[in-house]
Amino acid sequence: MAGEDEALVDHGLPDDALLAEQQAYYRARAPEYDRVYAEREELRNLLAEADELPITGDVLELACGTGQWTGALAERAHSVTALDAAAETLDIACARVTSPNVLFTQADVFTWHPSRRYDTVFFAYWLSHVPPSRLPAFWNTVREALAPHGKAIFIDDGPGEAWREEFLTPQSASTVVRQLDDGSRHRVVKVFHEPETLTGDLAALGWSADVRLVGGRSFIVGVAEPVGERG
């Protein structure tokens, strides 16, 4: 294990290499992905948050995973276009959500560009997997995908969940190591955003955002609009 951990040490690993490893991890994790929802009641309860969020019209869901949130979105939306890079998780999502107003598409969020605009862009447990250096480009993609007066809505782990992770090194605050059932260990981006800091970062990128903690410090929920596009 010590040798394997040494091999995982991040010696300035470029974002592209780290993101490729992250994508491989989620492909391999697909059969295990839903276990956390079965084991943690607070996550199942968090699904009810969708009922309180301004999800309307045509919805784009980024990094939909196994579709845990897609069905709830479909109940509120006119249509849902759900993207994920991993075919393995999309297969599970397609089996879980069969609503006629849902279209699943395989696409890498970091290289994908929208061909149309949506009233709502939604992403759950994805923002924390965006490297800090990629935040401006990511939020520009979200902006491109939003119709006038549209909203970006997100849910993610809060800072109170950081204790669950094994950080690569004390100096690497945005890279963690995760182990799968087969014992393999993988580097994954994981950034625990503080609401006030994230609100300021988004303001600097031209967004007006309301980011709040729920469940103590366990989760964050945010609603953001491009400045100048408020209704």
Automatic annotation (TrEMBL):
Residues 59-150 form the Methyltransferase domain. Keywords: Methyltransferase, Transferase. InterPro entries: Methyltransf_25, SAM-dependent_MTases_sf. GO terms for molecular function: methyltransferase activity. GO terms for biological process: methylation. It comes from the Bacteria. PANTHER family: TRANS-ACONITATE 2-METHYLTRANSFERASE-RELATED. This is Class I SAM-dependent methyltransferase. It comes from Streptomyces ureilyticus.
